[in-house]
Amino acid sequence: MSPLLLPFLLLHIITGAALQLRPGYYSGTCPAAEIIVRDVMKKAFVREPRSLASVMRFQFHDCFVNGCDASMLLDDTPTMLGEKLSLSNINSLRSYEVVDEVKKALEKVCPGVVSCADIIIMAARDAVALSGGPDWEVKLGRLDSLTASQEASDNIMPSPRANATFLIDLFGKFNLSVKDLVALSGSHSIGQGRCFSVMYRLYNQSGTGRPDPAFEPKFREKLYKLCPLNVDQNVTGDLDATPIIFDNQYFMDLDSGRGFLYSDQTLFTCPQTRGFVKQFSIDQGEFFKAYVEGMIKLGDLQIEQPGEIRENCRVANGRPVNTF
Ligand code: HEM
Ligand SMILES: *[C@@H]1O[C@H](CO)[C@@H](O)[C@H](O)[C@H]1NC(C)=O
Ligand SMILES: *[C@@H]1O[C@H](CO)[C@@H](O)[C@H](O)[C@H]1NC(C)=O
Ligand SMILES: *[C@@H]1O[C@H](CO)[C@@H](O)[C@H](O)[C@H]1NC(C)=O
Ligand SMILES: *[C@@H]1O[C@H](CO)[C@@H](O)[C@H](O)[C@H]1NC(C)=O
């Protein structure tokens, strides 16, 4: 992470101003859009429950890097290093094929109308709703970028080693509050992480040669079994105790030292964020309310740039992609 580059990149972030995002944006041009997206997500859940979490994560990795513009879905080209192989995304982001499937279903009914950037926003909402979490109205009308930037993703996306102070600061640069940070981290109520993301925490937290003292000992033992030193670091563990149900279990787990990632547990360790963790752990309604607010703010992130409705979410429409 380069702290020098970050302020420069973020200067260009504007929220909700360039394109007029609004609910029901496709009601005239593709009235079935939201039903179609939810339908494909339901099928994805039946095939593999985790894929909902994997697709929901896209909203974070898309919107933080040059706004919600589906840049993270672009494949690399000979002239453009995209975001799929960035530090946080390589061997980690998955279920791109679910978005392809949504796009294909939409193109059949209303070709060239619904952006991939909006698909991510609808699919993320549906993933949460279908997992037992809140349901909400999303604003639509985004355009897809013509390019992507691996460098921007490398510089912006936070590591699982990040502490709460760093995360508060990072989210603040996107006009997201401390409460937004804690609520949005509740996304880890569903899904899994790799041993890769927790090895240092288990064996050498902050270079001490010791595990993170914030671990509850039994939970730590469980992770030692899952992730021994010589493990294939692609092995995955659950991010909370109920990984296919979107609920406030994640916060209860943090309260008892059972957070998977250091960047999760730090929200309980740090006094500035602990109050929200405690509140959400005892009041699921408060968590859901704050979560919806956070997701809407996250979905509002935009930068000023040319855009289009991609035919295929993986490639810009019939033009050279090296336009930056
Ligand atoms: C606060 C800073 C955050 C950090 C440092 C972070 C980091 C991570 C890491 C390291 C993983 C596991 C990746 C792996 O081991 O391959 C993960 C998984 C995940 N993240 Fe985050 N994350 C953060 C915030 C968010 C937000 C805001 C969202 C959604 C809005 C989100 C959604 C997810 C989901 C759903 C998964 C599970 C994905 C799956 O099972 O495939 N995360 N995150
Ligand atoms: C930042 O967030 C605050 C509170 O949610 C809001 O009132 C304000 O308009 C936002 N600023 C920008 C630049 O979006
Ligand atoms: C948090 O991380 C930053 C750098 O990422 C470091 O400078 C700071 O000392 C850390 N703060 C705490 C309280 O550990
Ligand atoms: C732990 O990390 C520190 C600092 O990065 C490093 O010098 C040390 O060799 C590491 N120890 C082990 C056992 O990996
Ligand atoms: C995980 O799997 C990928 C793809 O099979 C491989 O390239 C990578 O080296 C593995 N990563 C780790 C940390 O073992």
UniProtKB/TrEMBL annotation:
What are the GO MF terms of this UniProt record? Answer: heme binding; lactoperoxidase activity; metal ion binding
Entry EC no(s) = 1.11.1.7
The entry's Ca(2+) 2-binding residues are D240, T242, D247
The subcellular location is: Secreted
Please name every pair of cysteines joined by a disulfide bond in this record.
C30-C110, C63-C68, C116-C313, C195-C227
Q: Where are the transmembrane segments?
A: none
Q: Name one GO cellular component term.
A: extracellular region
Concerning SUPFAM superfamilies, the annotation shows: Heme-dependent peroxidases
Gene3D superfamilies xrefs:
1.10.520.10, Peroxidase, domain 2
- Cofactor(s) the protein requires to work: heme b; Ca(2+)
**Which transformation does this protein catalyse, written as a reaction?**
2 a phenolic donor + H2O2 = 2 a phenolic radical donor + 2 H2O
Could you list this entry's UniProt keywords, alphabetically sorted. Calcium, Disulfide bond, Glycoprotein, Heme, Hydrogen peroxide, Iron, Metal-binding, Oxidoreductase, Peroxidase, Secreted, Signal
The segment(s) forming the Plant heme peroxidase family profile domain are 20-317
- Matching InterPro entries, A to Z? Haem_peroxidase, Haem_peroxidase_sf, Peroxidase_pln, Peroxidases_heam-ligand_BS, Secretory_peroxidase
Entries under CDD domains matching the protein: secretory_peroxidase
| Residue numbers annotated as active site | H61 (proton acceptor)
Residues annotated to bind heme b? H188
Pinpoint the site Transition state stabilizer.
Answer: R57
Q: What is this protein called?
A: Peroxidase
